Amino acid sequence: MNDTPRTLPNFRSDNVAPVAPEILQAITEVNRGPAASYGDDDYSKLLNQRFSALFEAEVTVFPVATGTAANALSLAACARPYGAIYCHEEAHVHTAEGGATEAFTGGAKLLTLPGPNFRIEPGLLRQALAGTAWGVRNRSQPDAVSITQASEFGTVYSLAEIAEISAIARDKNLSVHMDGARFANGLARLGCSPAEMTWRAGVDILSFGATKNGAMSSDAIVVFDRDLVEPLSYRLRRAGQTWSKMRYASAQLLAYVEDGLYLRLATKANAVATRLGAGLAALPGVRLVAPVEANLVFINLPVSAINRLAATGLPFARRGQDIVRFVTRFDSTEQEADEVIALVRDAAIDKVSR
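Structure (tokenized):
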């Protein structure tokens, strides 16, 4: 008799994933003897060169420890303390970062907008800016727009949508920030180049995610607008985001983009999510909350069915009363997806039978 506890798939978050072997190897390789600190090492000096080649433009790259740091400090470089930043009402900067943007900007206000499939709708942004009280001192003055690619619900902005939002922002002299915590997943979905999804579409500054997709503890800020580089460098130092042993962060980022590793990892996660989403959508009593376009799957279930699902021990995240979130990882498998589908089916069927 086998008493070994059953191990269930863990789709609670892509943060639960291990470190990709290629990135772990890069950390081992850099861990050989002393090296210059605070970014003066050989690995860190390569970052701008490698990322400039990747994005087909001169860029400056700043490693940071977390996506929250990347978002808050990027926006702090774009917005004045009395400024305003437009974002979707479900954006991570608004719902899940503990007011970090407001803290690091010194008080800039996040102004939220609705939009179908959890993306900013360009027409609503244009309408909001048209109604702004420009120059009125009792109103926050717009400074930036932040879009999330892929969105908090796993939907992906098209290149045309990014370009239209950027054009609206540029017409009002606003900066455009992209929260790319799942940048690779969005890129894999669109099948375009990093340049096409960023600066060529009007993005000024990018929070470049790696930790959710195989890195150990390294994200980055990629700056396209040269005017933002110097003020951001001072903000990073004040925020404690200038790594003393930066070579370990830089080595991760270099390995992440080497030979398209980041896209291979994201493509795998996206494919498992597509299988999971299709299987769940076919079940009676289950409804997809958003199209599955990256590595996140949201479904609507009766509360009783969610409680039965939780009782199985399956790790997942819950949003509100009747929404379940699954996030696939770069190391997820089709077998894991099928197992989750079966568990959800059993929970939902039990509800129907009663």
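The chain is about 45% helix and 15% strand. The radius of gyration is 21 Å.
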